[in-house]
Amino acid sequence: MSRTCDLCGKHTSFGNTVSKSYNHVRRSWKPNLLKIKTEIGGRTVTLRICTQCLKSDFVTKKINVNPANKPVAAEAEAK
C-alpha cells in the first residue's frame, strides 16, 4: 500500500538532512494521511487523503452518529 493521497497525489519525498558541519544524511518526508469514509456516487468509499485536502474541504466526511439530544428510534416507539 503506497503512501499517496488519493486526491492530490502527494507522496513520500526524499532529500538530505544537512548538519551545521555540512554533513549530508539521506532522509524522507512522509505525508500526513488519514483514512476517511465519504460518499461518492451514492456509495460509501474509504479514501486515504492528506490533511491539507481534508482542511480545504475537497471531501466531506460521512458520519453516522446520533446526536445526544435526539432519542433513539427504539425509545421513541416505546413512548
Task: Give a structural overview.
By secondary structure, the chain is mainly β. 14% of the residues lie in helices and 35% in strands. The protein is built from two helices and four strands; from the N terminus they run E-E-E-E-H-H. A two-stranded antiparallel ribbon has the order 1-2. The longest helix has 6 residues. The model has no long low-confidence stretch (mean pLDDT 87).
Please outline what is shown here.
Strand 3 (33-40) and strand 4 form a beta hairpin. It contains two helices and four strands.
Quaternary state of the chains: single chain
The description of the largest β-sheet is: 2 strands, antiparallel
Sheet with the most strands: spatial strand order: 1-2
CA gyration radius, whole angstroms: 21 Å
Descriptive terms for the model:
two-stranded antiparallel ribbon; mainly beta; two-stranded antiparallel sheet; 2 helices; 79 residues; 4 strands
Secondary structure elements and pairings:
Elements: E1 13-18, E2 24-29, E3 33-40, E4 43-50, H1 51-55, H2 73-78
Antiparallel strand pairs: 1-2, 3-4
